[in-house]
Amino acid sequence: MRRHMFSGDIGTLRKKSFDVVIVGCGVAALYTALSLDRRLSLALINKEGPKESNSIYAQGGIAAVIQSTDNMEDHIRDTLFSGAGLCKEESVRVLVREGPRDIRALVELGVPFDRDDEGNIQVTREGAHSHDRIVHCGGDATGFHLTMTLLKAVQARENIEVLDNECLTDICTDSGGRAAGVITIDSKGAFTRFSAPHVVIASGGIGRIYRKSTNAHTQTGDGIAAAIRAGAKVENMEFVQFHPTALIHPDKNGRYFLISEALRGEGAVLRNRRWQRFMCEAHPMADLAPRDVVSRAIIWEMKNHDLPHVYLDITGRPRAFLENRFPTIYHECLRRDIDIAVDWIPVVPVQHYFMGGITTGLDGKTNIEGLYACGEAASTGVHGANRLASNSLLECLVFGRRCAESIVGSAMAAPGDVPMEPHSETEASVDLSTIRTQIRRIMTQKCGIIRNKTNLTEAIAEIGALYAVLERLPMRSQTRIIMLNMATVSLNVLRAALKRDRSVGAHYRSDEIKIKEGTDLK
Predict the structure, then answer these.
(1) With the C-alpha atoms ordered 262, 268, 273, 274, is the resulting torsion angle positive or negative?
(2) DSSP labels for 292-305?
(3) CA atoms within 13 A on the CB side of 35
(4) Beta pairing class for 191-195 and 14-17
(5) pTM (predicted TM-score)
(6) From CA 134, how far away is CA 69, in angstroms rounded?
(7) Which of 315, 314, 325, 312 is nearest to 248 (CA)?
(8) For residues 218 and 24, is the Cβ–Cβ distance under 8 A?
(9) How far is CA 291 from the centre of its chain?
(10) Section 318-323 average pLDDT
């Protein structure tokens, strides 16, 4: 595996120096930046713009214990249960116990949480939660309001420079093995070196290595791939979460519109085309079962009855309630000629979230000194094998702040020289669009919701061959770099999925136990 994408003389690059470089533009990146000392100089780097991230599309909300009728031990228990025994309990306890502190900080920043008639923050329930504890904004537009509020605060800080259209190329390390900044490439193929003793990877997930995903089109695992090349440890790469309910047709950018789990929290139920509810037989929590269970149940329902999709039915709720509680979903469905007050919503499971990533401790530190990770790009241990609904934005906040606190408390020594390892390159005519399509097809067909050894082994060989072609090319464009990142991340997901030969959480191996119609899907 090549160590660096950039293969020229690093001394010839345009250079900018900062105290901290943060890669990303979602909630984890923005909140980390705001949690750092104002006296530090920060660069916030993203490959398109701060209005294109997974965070901004988040609908449901943030899980946090803020009501007296709830308690932290139940939130911890719910998280551990959803994680199928693979969560790091210490990380979960930090997440849950410190979460309310960050909700209060968001209130002070002006995040417009929905409130009841008495002015209290409203809470609702989502799948696998034992209490109402999901705080939200704009009904079902939490990610948008949260991201835009944080972005406004970031733009007001004189110590933070936001740099758009810069795609991460490499994480630099000096001769002592410490983080020394990053190299990026812009849309015109120009490289820039950002020198810094501290680097935070908050670049999001990997959703676009799959054909169907709710992720922003920028989510191709760039930060994770760069960290792998730099020698950072990764873990839980096999745990890819598929959301049970997305509208059956994508938008012009290929993104599938999410139908939030909060609908099922407010009484929506899944039905097949014969009007039958099928989740009651699949799990004791029925339609509020963990996401992996619901997704598999839908897949089996579609397969066993030759259905292109199933339906989500929330017609039992009044129109006024639906339009007020779920304005984003209500109007998007209406735009597509689906009136959710009287029509069932046609839905399918699609890739939604990534539980694995760059291995970190409780302070966001990786095994490389000076390199941190938070948000979806990190594996903090809070999600285990299956993320509990609305714990993701909470993780961005808690561990983003913890990254910042660790950086503030550490030394700010200037990075040393950055050695560049040479790599043999050969120019060749390659159809990158075809390679992108092939990677997504292979991952969707052979490493999706249901997996087996044969498919995984074939996929490793197929994507490995694509990787070998890409690795030899000169990395002179964002597209080439993104394709190699997609292949790198895909191979790591596949190899981890093949190694784990037992089903757990979101990782389901059909060759472990032969599933027959009617078998309990737990």
Answers:
(1) positive
(2) HHHHHHHHHHHHHT
(3) 26
(4) parallel
(5) 0.94
(6) 13
(7) 312
(8) no
(9) 15
(10) 97
Q: Which residue has the tokens 């983080």?
A: 179
Q: 423: pLDDT confidence band, cut at 50, 70 and 90?
A: confident
Q: Which residue has the tokens 């539980």?
A: 355
To the query of whether residue 291 is one of the catalytic residues in this protein, the response is: yes
Residue 121, phi-psi category: left (phi > 0), alpha (psi -120 to 50), beta (remainder): beta
The whole-number pLDDT of residue 261 equals 84
What does the block give as tokens for 79?
């998280």
pLDDT digits 0-9 by tens, 192-203? 999 999 999 999
Q: 93, 193, 211, 291: which one is catalytic?
A: 291
Give tens-digit pLDDT for 331-363.
999 999 999 999 999 999 999 999 999 999 999
**Residue that the structure tokens 């209406």 belong to:** 334
Contact 244, 352 (CB under 8 A): no
Q: Which residue type is seen at 190?
A: A
Which residues 6+ apart lie within 8 Å of 299 measured at CB? Answer: 349, 449, 450
| C-alpha span between 388 and 390 (Å, rounded) | 6
pLDDT at site 413: 82
pLDDT of 517 higher than 70: no
Residue 466 · residue 439 · CB < 8 Å: yes
CB of 347 within 8 A of CB of 312?
yes
Closest among 384, 383, 378 to 363, alpha carbons compared:
378
Tell me yes or no: is domain 432-499 CATH 1.20.58.100: yes
Which of 28, 120, 133, 27 is closest to 77 using CA atoms?
A: 133
Class of domain 10-239+355-408: alpha beta
Domain ranges of the chain: 10-239+355-408, 240-352, 432-499
**Token pair in block for residue 260:** 């939030």
Which string of b and e fits 228-252 if b means at least 16 CB within 10 Å?
bbbebebebbbbbbbbbbbbbebee
- Under CATH, what is the fold of the domain 240-352? Flavocytochrome C3; Chain A, domain 1 (3.90.700)
Left (φ > 0), alpha (ψ -120 to 50) or beta: where does 464 sit? alpha
Here the tokens at position 424 are 């043999």
Alpha helices in 353-452 (DSSP H): 391-408, 432-446
What angle do the packed helices 391-408 and 89-109 form, to 10 degrees? 90
